[in-house]
Amino acid sequence: MTNRIHALAADDDFQSPQRPSNGLRHDGYLRDLTSSRNRTLTTPPPRRLPPISNVDMVYESAVMRSLVESIALVAQSNAAVLILGESGTGKERVARAIQAGGPRAGETFLAVNTSAIPEQLLESELFGHVRGAFTGATQARRGLLMEAHGGTLLLDEIGDMPLALQPKLLRVLQFGETRPVGSDRIGQVDVRIIAATHRDLNALVKEGRFREDLHYRLNVIPLVVPPLRDRQDDIIPLVELFLQEARKRTIASPVESIDKEALSVLVRAPWPGNVRELENTIERLVVLGREAVVTVKDLTFLAAHEHSETWLRFEGVPLTLKQMNQRYLDWVLARTDGNKPRAAKILNIDLSTLYRWERAER
Fold first, then answer.
1. Residues β-bridged to residue 82
2. With a threshold of 0.90, does the pTM exceed it?
3. Residue 361: what are its φ and ψ, rounded to 5°?
4. How far apart are CA 114 and CA 92, in angstroms?
């Protein structure tokens, strides 16, 4: 039996199940197979990262460096981008960096907050309208999509876009089609759409408040902008930038610098409003400053703000009504920067009653 097998294997006319059907000899097939197994696969060289120096953002933290590297890569394409992050984190700055670092640099960049425009006007704002399309439309308008032709349009707070308008935006993303309100003519537009939101779009899709297909179209490349509390290494560089910019806007201000202790307070602050709150804080210090150097005593309002956000939080035994009353009074005073007449007006009490409550607290 063994000899029979060897004889069959040695016979060139033996048709092995693995032999190719093109008539090649068995020994040639084995040589080709061996050659293919030993062949070295060639791979393209690794992609070179575009220079991140082109991205105009201030940062030192590792998390922001990773984001900036992603921005540099994303900027080279025309893919849709969805920028995610809390309010005040700088989502529009990211969108502008994408525009500036890519082939559309120098072209038009427009931004619109979809939650700030009434639903009946947003369609006209984006797609334009013809004359007489609705009451008050005395002349035609191109719309932001056409005005941004060749450039970039940022749709901020996209999660608040009315459900009825979402199919029209989907047509823009899919086919570059745009149709003004009141018109039966479809135009073509070349515009890069970047969307931004602080909302959870997946949750909105499940609730039926956001189209799933539109979400897929927008979410080709998601970029997450971290909150300021997760990038403390960036706070001092940002403070230096905002201080410089604020001094240019308020030339008469004597403020020139911020001492180390005050910088330490700024770094440790929670910043629920993120970068926007930090920028506004530095602006306030420059406008109201009376000395050349900002010190800790100039930052007492930060502690008041932190307390104002936590007046209702307590642990252990619940507060008494009197304790709640006093804590709420402290909260209102903190929110009004200690302005007692204004606090009394908010509380709807006489100023004398406010003073009496303060004495009772002591």
1. 195, 222
2. no
3. -70, -35
4. 13
